[in-house]
Specification:
- Two copies of one chain form a homodimer.
- With 235 residues, chain A is of the alpha+beta class.
- Chain A has two domains: 6-69, Winged helix-like DNA-binding domain superfamily/Winged helix DNA-binding domain (Arc Repressor Mutant, subunit A); 76-232, Chorismate lyase-like (Chorismate lyase, 3-Layer(aba) Sandwich), CATH 3.40.1410.10.
- Chain A is built from seven helices and eleven strands.
- A six-stranded antiparallel beta sheet of chain A has the order 5-6-7-10-9-8. Chain A has a three-stranded mixed beta sheet with strand order 4-3-11, with no helix packed on it.
- The radius of gyration of chain A is 22 Å and the shape is elongated.
- The termini of chain A are far apart.
- The interface between A and B is large, with 42 and 42 residues.
- β11 (228-233) of chain A pairs antiparallel with β8 of chain B, so a sheet runs across the interface.
- The structure holds a DNA duplex (19 and 19 nucleotides).
DNA sequence: AAGTGGTCTAGACCACTCC
DNA sequence: GAGTGGTCTAGACCACTTC
């Protein structure tokens, strides 16, 4: 029976103090130096405990300043309408304002994407891909990737209306055939686009839009897990 | 402009080799010792690179054996029926078999839970809480927590039918009023119940069941992010 | 300038796996 | 028993924040 590592014990102790409210959200933890002295260990061992707490999402560290108990962040609830089956900002009033700026355009072009092409029922792996980003208060929040059949590659996109809005304007009467949600760890691309740390949680929502029974668009949205929740309300 | 840390550069290089297929899923990475020698750094620096890859979910490490590229794990797709609005195992055939064993009982009793009580429209913060666990191949997979009004505290629970099945048998004609999905980092409780590492992704699905317009049950399901995806299909 | 976290080297011993 | 990852100490210097 291996005894518990020192750094784990320290992390557990600090975690307990956070849970109990002894260290309230936003408060500063002892410095690594202070912890090292207090527990009689080397600074690196104390530091390891902080890494543990950071990885568990309990604490955030600011270089040169200190480590702080993470404030309980109220997540933005983005409603997903079960009838029209479209994303709609709402619920929290400010949200409508925040998302009103529309989808920021990131890139578009023909790409090889066998998975999306298969879902779209295409014979070749090539799709027309549009990548966009939604921000709230300037913070990257939801990264979307739309895959369309190559024949739509002259697709005109206006950020104000969004990709799906543009498809509607072009006369496509689409709806969702299916949705899948899952939770991922932020990969290198997420880290860059959503500006999160390695190890952050990402909420992934994937859907297939159909129009007259024909697949029209495959959408993948990767949302910052600490900022976004998706809500469906049934009437 | 601070130059990139050595360990980050090493992690990036290895990540690139994994993405390119040079290091295929399941293959073993060089040992920490070998990496240290190869890049001319101390073993701890090479180790730090491995920590980075592990945190990003690209690699898993087995003590005494080595670090391996994580196999692309096909997630269990649990379907969520938009009509009955109930969870149904399916899609992948084996799933029905795996979940057929029912919900393993974990605990039940009166608890203080102001959040759930508020959603249930109760005057007091007390609710009757039932905690269960679903396993697939013995692996903990979905941890559920049902909150009911205290008047239902004599609620009889049979694992084979599940909590919602039992409510149906008792004559409650319930349906979901709303659902929220989000992504979290595994906290201490998740680590224990779902048996995951600190830092693992957890898919959270929260819903409110109503019966004749009255709130009946508040459900929170915490699913292992690396194993579970929730799918809704519209006909 | 002082305080604090970030990176790195050097070296040691332990715990687990695999043969 | 050899190989490999896990933990820990000791000490150093750098980068960022705060005053």
């Amino acid at each position: 029976m291996p005894r518990e590592a020192r750094y784990r014990a320290i992390a557990r102790e600090l975690g307990r103090r956070i849970d109990s409210g002894d260290l309230p959200p936003g408060s500063r933890l002892p410095t690594e130096e202070a912890l090292a002295e207090q527990y009689g260990v080397h600074r690196l061992t104390a530091r390891q405990a902080m890494v543990e707490l950071r990885t568990s999402g309990l604490v955030e560290t600011r270089h040169g300043s200190g480590s702080y108990v993470r404030p309980l962040q109220r997540k933005l609830e983005v409603t997903v309408d079960p009838v029209t089956r479209l994303h709609r900002p709402g619920v929290i009033d400010e949200l409508a304002v925040h998302f009103a700026s529309g989808e920021e355009f990131r890139s578009a072009g023909l790409r090889q994407d066998p998975g999306a092409a298969r879902r779209l029922g295409l014979p070749d792996p090539e799709v027309y891909e549009v990548a966009t980003l939604l921000r709230t208060d300037e913070v990257p929040c939801v990264a979307s990737r739309y895959a369309l059949p190559p024949r739509l590659s002259d697709f005109a996109y206006d950020p104000a209306e969004g990709v799906l809005g543009a498809l509607g304007r072009l006369g496509y009467d689409y709806r969702y055939r299916s949705h899948t949600v899952s939770a991922d760890i932020a990969g290198p691309v997420d880290q860059e686009v959503l500006q999160v740390e390695p190890g952050a949680a990402v909420l992934v929502r994937e859907g297939l839009l159909v129009c007259d029974g024909e697949p029209l668009c495959h959408v993948v949205r990767r949302c910052r897990g600490d900022l976004v929740a998706l809500t469906t309300r049934y009437e």
